[in-house]
Amino acid sequence: MAAAYGLYTHVQSNKRRSIALLLGLFFLVYLMVYAGALLAEAMTRDAPLDALLRAAWQDLVWALPVATVGTALWIGAAYLFNQWLIDAVTGGREVTRKQEPRLYNLLENLCISRGITMPKLKVMEAEPPNAFASGLNQRQYSITVTTGLLHNLNDAEVEAVLGHELTHIRNGDVRMLVIAVIVAGVIGFFAELTFRMLFRGGWRMRGGSRGRGKGGGLAIVIALVLIAAAWLLSTAIRFALSRRREFLADAGAVELTKNPDAMISALRRIEGRGELEGATSAIMEMCVDNPRQGFTDLFATHPSIDARVAALVQYAGGHDPGLLPLPGESPWHDQPAASDAGGEPPKTFLPAEPPVTLGGPAAPGPAAPDQASGPPPGSPPGPWGPHRN
Questions:
Q1: Which residues, listed in sequence order, are joined to residue 94 by a DSSP beta bridge?
Q2: Which of 28, 32, 338, 372 is the most buried (most CB within 10 A)?
Q3: Under a CB-based contact definition with an 8 Å cutoff, are residues 167 and 183 in contact?
Q4: How many Cβ atoms from other residues are within 10 Å of residue 304's Cβ?
Q5: Cβ(86)–Cβ(285) under 8 Å?
Q6: DSSP string, 169-201
Q7: Per-residue pLDDT band at 184 (split at 50, 70, 90)
Q8: Which residue from 121, 81, 126 is spatially nearest to 279, judged by alpha carbons?
């Protein structure tokens, strides 16, 4: 019997969009092959533009099976070794109930409450508070938390973070994101290789020694534009997959824990502090929060913490305490100065709550809000659907 998880309509719709986006990524692989063929044709012979375009199309038809098999092999290798590579980069180590009883019990209780197969639990030695889920199948699925998260968040907050990551696994987010990263990696590798060949001697050897006809020059420009466009689109698709799903994962954590305040306070404690030193962008995209900023909102991998908290306040009945310090941190850490010109007053911190102390008595978490609280009937739907009182 399937686990009762809720949010079915939105989850299924999101999965269909993700599948469409991933099919688009495969199309971009073929586009890159065509661009490479056009570039090769333009740099090896003089011909009118229409002749070069036709020749490149014939090359694509010939290379299509090779490109498909090559991409499938790339994905197959990643399917087998992706978790090993992630653990090698992050240093995550699998833990048992005996090693981390409190953390293990929190995750196990969440899984039991919904009949979900328990993923592997891993701990990463890192001060920044953060966590991520990874894996492509039931045997690989794992949740990795940093020691900084354990030391700085209380039990209720850690439970909410685990619920967030468990929702990513249950909704298929982790599998989709890993596949998108794999295919985008193929495109990025090919694009970088092409430009390195062009600007480190390839252009001079084949194109600079004799003049190219007008058709050849235009073909080279078209090929380079296609390669750059494919890389930019694959990157944007990758980020969109990550950004869209964070609202659903936050909602899933609330559904599992019945405690929206715990999810909100966890986000406020992680906010701006989760950058993992040495982690790749692909790993940061899987984390609860990715503080890395793109040069436009299109390339932001996560919605802002403010947007996520606002959604939880409006549609889950949570309460936003504002900025929260970590234990031992000054209450005024990174506090914006009050405006002398009559601007908005600065946000205030609540005192830090006791952190999780593994092996010791449980630290009290934020009390669950009254289940009757929340927005009034008829309020507009949120990122994961209409609110139900």
A1: 122
A2: 32
A3: no
A4: 12
A5: no
A6: HHTTHHHHHHHHHHHHHHHHHHHHHHHHHIIII
A7: confident
A8: 126
What is the distance between the alpha carbons of residues 379 and 205, in angstroms, rounded to a whole number? 66
Q: State the pLDDT at residue 136.
A: 82
Q: What average pLDDT score do residues 246-255 get?
A: 91
Asked if residue 337 has pLDDT above 80, the reply is no
| CA distances (Å), origin 344, targets 219, 320, 336, 339, 347 | 55, 17, 10, 7, 9
Average pLDDT on 84-102 reads 91
Residue the block writes with tokens 């409006």: 314
pLDDT of 268 over the 50 cut:
yes
Cβ neighbours of residue 328 under 8 Å, at least 6 residues apart?
352
> Under 8 Å CB-to-CB from 135, ≥6 apart: which residues?
82, 83, 119, 141, 142, 169, 174, 175, 178
User: 230: pLDDT confidence band, cut at 50, 70 and 90?
Assistant: confident
**Structure tokens that stand for 73 in this block:** 């092999």
What does each C-alpha distance from 323 to 8, 224, 334, 357 come to in angstroms?
A: 33, 46, 9, 23
- Rounded Cα distance between 160 and 164, Å, is 6
The answer to whether 155 and 106 are in contact (CB under 8 A) is: yes
199 CB-contact burial (10 Å; exposed 0-12 / middle 13-18 / buried 19+) = exposed
Beta strands in the chain (DSSP E): 93-94, 120-124, 131-134, 142-146
Using an 8 Å Cβ cutoff, are 42 and 212 in contact?
Answer: yes
Torsion (CA) 295, 298, 304, 306 in degrees, nearest 10: 110
* Domain ranges across the chain: 8-298
Catalytic positions, written as ranges: 165
CA 109 to chain centre: 25
Q: Quick one: DSSP state of residue 93?
A: E
Question: What is the pLDDT confidence band of residue 308, given thresholds at 50, 70 and 90?
Answer: very high
